[in-house]
Amino acid sequence: MLITTKKPWSEVQEMAADYQTLGIVGCGDCCAACQTGGSEQIKEAAAKLTEESKKEIVFSFTCEAPCDQRIIRRDLRRVSKELSQVDALVVMTCGIGVQSLAHVVDKPLIPTNNTQFPGSAARLGAFYEYCSTCGDCVLGETAAICPVTMCPKGLLNGPCEEVAEGMCDVFGYQKPCAWTDIYARLKARNSTDYLQKVRPARDWSSRMSPRQVVWAR
Amino acid sequence: MTKNNGGFLFTAQWETPGSLSLEPLLQGLEALKKGGEVVHILEGEGGLSPLVAAAKARKMGLKPVVHVQCRDRNRRALFSDLATLAALGVKEVVISTGGHSPQLAPAKPVYDLDVIQILQMMQDMGRGRDLAGRPLAGSFSVSPGVVVNLRGEPELEKLSLRKKMDMGAAFALLTPSTRLEEIEAVASWVSLPTIASVKLEEANSQEIVAMARPLMNGGVRGLNLIVGSGQEGRGAEVLAQMRRSLS
Ligand code: SF4
Ligand code: SF4
After folding, report:
1. Across-strand partners of B174?
2. pLDDT of amino acid B2
3. Is residue B37 in a domain?
4. Which domain covers residue B175, as residue numbers?
5. Domains of chain A, earliest start first
6. Chain B residue numbers touching A161 (CB-CB < 8 A)
7. In chain B, how many domains are there?
8. CATH of the domain at B129
9. Is position B3 within any domain?
10. Looking at the partner chain, which of A153, A169, A184 has a beta carbon nearest the beta carbon of B111?
11. Closest ligand 2 atom to Cα of A178
12. Cα separation of A64 and A43, whole Å?
């Protein structure tokens, strides 16, 4: 899922300053799990906007997947009358949701969240970055530990010279070294041959953003 | 590897000073010159370019060994640095990853290439090819050393070094330690000419001088003294004492 955190409310207020009537769109998937755009957070935002900022909330809803333009388009059609009455939309999604909305509706959009990383939820309120979306996955060779992400230097061919007693220098030796962990797992599986593989430099020509995947029709 | 004292090599390792004039760099090199002819040069935090330092060092009659790090440069910049070093007549470099301290300066880390990939690029340069595989004018004969980490997981370090040797690593520089048994334990399995390192600030002069003979007898090929800024004079003196202790 995409991990989001809330923007400071003052930032949202500043962006909303010029608008009086608002609609609110939340996310029932990742942002609900991160408690940044689920129904509870929509209620809280609506209360603050009406009570503190004296705005009028014309409608609000949680979209099951605002990052899917087909779904958000469908949901907005259901509130088309209300939509025509609002000055702007408060969008409680990730940055992808905000931009998907921008593709289907011509209204000023006020994002309430900061998008952090694609992550895994270990438990409620504990989210961890495991993948940097590099586009050329090596997990099959690295015992399912991503060197691009878990090694802060993103090294593909083994450890740096700064590791000490299995701990990584970048965070003051407070976190484990990804490559030491990769080695330990590969060794336990008799697969250390993978450590001898030379992984060439990444080809950045295919990694320039914005990337796209479009199926041939 | 450049040798003296019956094959045992004494070198100073020094980071370029942060300055908007060349004066501190020239003074530092002059002071280090009294300790011997080989100086390992690294880019200091916000320091002057090691390329300029290498050029100046060569002019003074020194043999610079420049440390090239993955940390701050992408492949184009690394290629340019290595080509420039070759053009300046530098014969040896040490390729390392380099540490990143987000606490110090909140800069974007680069790490476009890792050590293996830089060694691969150097092999291509040696074959007269540039980054795009086009022919390069001139010849490239820069010998790469790599770092072996005394504090790494030993089996993983061995595998790592094997891979670096397959990619052309020609000598090994050990991470610093004042503990002879620790150095010897690692040096015993490193199958490349091996240079131990010690930080001047981590031991008194006598202790450092006393390390030279047992290391030499243990098959280590040299001792690299890491000298901090402002310590160049003392560093040169310790190097001279070590040299005398073996003669
Ligand atoms: S190697 Fe890492 S960053 Fe790349 S796709 Fe796999 S998990 Fe993601
Ligand atoms: S210590 Fe390990 S995880 Fe940290 S940067 Fe070095 S190789 Fe990567």
Report:
1. B148
2. 46
3. yes
4. 9-245
5. 2-117 (3.40.50.2300), 134-197 (no CATH)
6. 96-97, 147-149, 152, 175
7. 1
8. 3.20.20.220
9. no
10. A153
11. 3
12. 17
Going by C-alpha positions, the residue among A23, A130, A159 that lies closest to residue A87 is A23
Q: At CA A103, angle to CA A100 and CA A105, rounded to 5?
A: 105
Q: Is residue B2 part of a domain?
A: no
Classify residue A123 by burial, with Cβ atoms within 10 Å: 0-12, 13-18, 19+.
Answer: exposed
Residue A71, token pair as written in the block: 């779904």
Cis amide linkage into residue A210, ω under 30° from 0: yes
Judge whether residue B3 has pLDDT over 90: no
- Inter-CA distances, A13 with A10, A36, A68, A89, Å: 5, 16, 27, 13
Q: How far apart are CA B205 and CA B183, in angstroms?
A: 18
Beta-carbon contacts of B228 under 8 Å, excluding residues fewer than 6 positions away, are B15, B199, B200, B201
Residue B5 has pLDDT above 70, yes or no: no
pLDDT tens string, chain A, 217 residues long: the values are 999 999 999 999 999 999 999 999 999 999 999 999 999 999 999 999 999 999 999 999 999 999 999 999 999 999 999 999 999 999 999 999 999 999 999 999 999 999 999 999 999 999 999 999 999 999 999 999 999 999 999 999 999 999 999 999 998 999 999 999 999 999 999 999 999 999 999 999 888 899 999 999 8
Q: Residue count of chain A, please give it.
A: 217
pTM: 0.94
Q: Is residue B4 part of a domain?
A: no
Chain A hits for B97, Cβ within 8 Å: 153, 155, 160-162
Mean pLDDT of chain A: 97
CB count in 10 Å sphere of residue B37:
17
Q: How many CB atoms lie within 10 A of CB A171?
A: 13
Question: How far is CA A111 from its chain centroid?
Answer: 14
Task: Pick the residue from chain B with its C-alpha nearest to A148.
Answer: B111
Mean pLDDT over each residue of chain B, to the nearest integer: 94
C-alpha A210 to ligand 1 mean position (Å):
18
**C-alpha A192: how far from its chain's center?**
33
Query: Interior CA angle at B17 toward B15 and B20, to 5°?
Result: 150
Which pLDDT score, from 0 to 100, does residue A123 have? 96
